[in-house]
Amino acid sequence: MGGALADIAKRISETRFTLQTDDAAEGRRLLGSLSAEMTDFILPRINRAPAPFLIAVGGSTGAGKSTLVNSLIGRVVSPAGVRRPTTANPIVIHNPADAKHFEAQTFLADLPRSTDPASPTPALVLIPDADIAPGTAILDCPDIDSIAEANRDLARRILMCADLWLFVTTANRYADAAPWTLLREAAQRSTSVAIVLDRVPPEANREVRHHLSHLLSEAGLAQSPIFSVAELPLEDGLLPHTAVYPIRSWIQEVSSEAESRNRIRRRTLTGSIAALPSRVDTLASCAESQEEAHAQLARIVDERFRAAHDGLATVVSDGRILQGAVNARWQDFVGTGQLFRGLEPTMARMRDRISAAVTGKHDAASPLHIAILRSAAISLREAAVDVVDGVVDDWGRTPAGAALVESDPGLRAPTSELEDRVKEAVSGWSNEVNALVRDIGQGKKSKARILSFGVNGVCAVLEYATFWDPQHARATDAQTTGPGVALNLAGTIFGEQEAVSLIASIRDRFLTAAAGIVGDCRVPFDSALRLTAVPTRQSGALRTAGARLEEAL
User: Fold this and answer.
1) What span, in angstroms and rounded, lies between the C-alpha atoms of 99 and 127?
2) Which residue of 222, 261, 296, 300 could cross-link 217, Cys pair, CB 3.0 to 4.6 Å?
3) What 3-state class would DSSP assign to 361?
């Protein structure tokens, strides 16, 4: 069984709750509880590490725990009063012979040690007292319903590593929900519990005890003894000796007999271990929700960016970049209106017009070039913004994704550097086109034609032709639309096949640059997924470990 317990401890330590899911809060609470219980109680006890018999005094805010502890000890060792919470740090009252056990960083190892009950920093306060039986210690816990979450968690942790609970409540608050959540869990773990019913009016004692006994039976704690403490004036901050004598006598009886201590210790330990498979299975279900949520977020990112990359090919080739200002500049460049009226019968005369436009006083190629780059940049920026918006919208429909977007403003929109990166990408692509044309112009075959049209004019024609694919238009449009004319012009300059190949290469280069821009927009989402990643099949590992322990029981 030791190996099965060690395996469970390992799987628990590897479990992560990084995302906001419907059961994340339950999972984190259970993970913290199991982790602390394994480290503080089960593993040390199963390994037979010598330890005093631990009696934890717990209960709700204002129930009188600290006053009861002080009264049982016979002096003020724990702060008590009307200020809440009075017990911020756990206080251990122990026999001096057991000091080494509590001073060593094995019990509640992450808490520093202190001797000051009013210590402002979290600590385990150690109070030696010779009147405490050797091998026994009393722990005054923080309030289980403290306004401070850290106090609530610590109270629960201490209760879960104790052999016996002395649970304090009042006649007015014994039916509150918070105590019963813990008491039912104690019953599931077979933890020995005694109830102290504090501040009971004498006339209500019988009725309250009867109702409390009924509630304890329903919770599986029918055998738990109930001690009533009447509402009495304090003497030097302590309850009268007679008021706490039955409780003190019972504690002395339980703790002074080795057989009694060992019986309670075995019962609590055995019950805690027996409850592990079911609790680990619940943890596994919560952990599985984390896996599913993370996989869903990753799937959204993959699908959105895959669609965005696929959509770039359409953006680049369906002619949308050539609309508006680009089309107007193209008409200025080649006089498309005259072409439609059939007034330009030859490509030679078209070449003359372009050459004159490029080399004359009015350079029509530059406005066309600028318009193309601006339109391409706008389309590329829109693609980047659209894919980010799509992921944010889809993530926002899930609890996990909505929480991530809310906590990280950097996920809500593309980085402020997008504008500059788009400009750099489009400008870099244009420079590549220019370099390609100049490189081809070094060859004898195309040099004269390129020079006759002018490098800037040829680049403008190629850039214009890049953003249109004949497959997106009717065959009859190919010769009459601006892109069709540009393609024919490119064929005249470079030869038909080479022009098609060249334009395809230029289009691929733009797509590569565009894919880089869109891909950069994915980085913040991938980073968020990486930071919230959970171990692969953590739920399966937990279930396997739980089943292994169940077989060993």
Assistant:
1) 9
2) 222
3) coil
**Cα dist from 167 to 72, 149, 176, 355, 451, whole Å:** 14, 20, 13, 97, 97
CA 277 from chain centre, in angstroms, equals: 26
Q: Which helix (H) or strand (E) holds 422?
A: helix 418-440
**DSSP letter string over 462-531?**
HHHHHTB-GGGS-GGGTTTSHHHHHHHHHHHHH-HHHHHHHHHHHHHHHHHHHHHHHHHHHHHHHHHHHH
State pTM to two decimals: 0.82
Q: What are the pLDDT digits (tens) for 107-137?
A: 888 899 999 888 788 899 999 999 898 999 9
Q: How far is it, in rounded angstroms, from Cα 4 to Cα 550?
A: 9
**Domain range annotation of the chain:** 50-256, 292-535
Q: Residue 340: name the closest of 483, 480, 495 by CA.
A: 480
C-alpha span between 406 and 95 (Å, rounded): 52
- DSSP helix/strand/coil, 392: helix
Indicate the CATH number of 50-256 among 3.10.105.10, 3.40.50.300, 3.40.250.10, 3.40.50.360.
3.40.50.300
Instruction: Quote the CA–CA distance of 194 and 202 in Å, as a whole number.
Output: 20
CA-based nearest residue to 532, from 400, 409, 411, 412 = 400
Burial zone of 257 (CB within 10 Å; 0-12 exposed, 13-18 middle, 19+ buried) = exposed
- CA–CA dist 16, 534 (Å, integer): 6
Predicted confidence at residue 292, as pLDDT, reads 97
Q: Are 398 and 22 in contact (CB under 8 A)?
A: no
Contacts of 224 by beta carbon, 8 Å cutoff, 6+ apart: 192, 193, 194, 195, 216
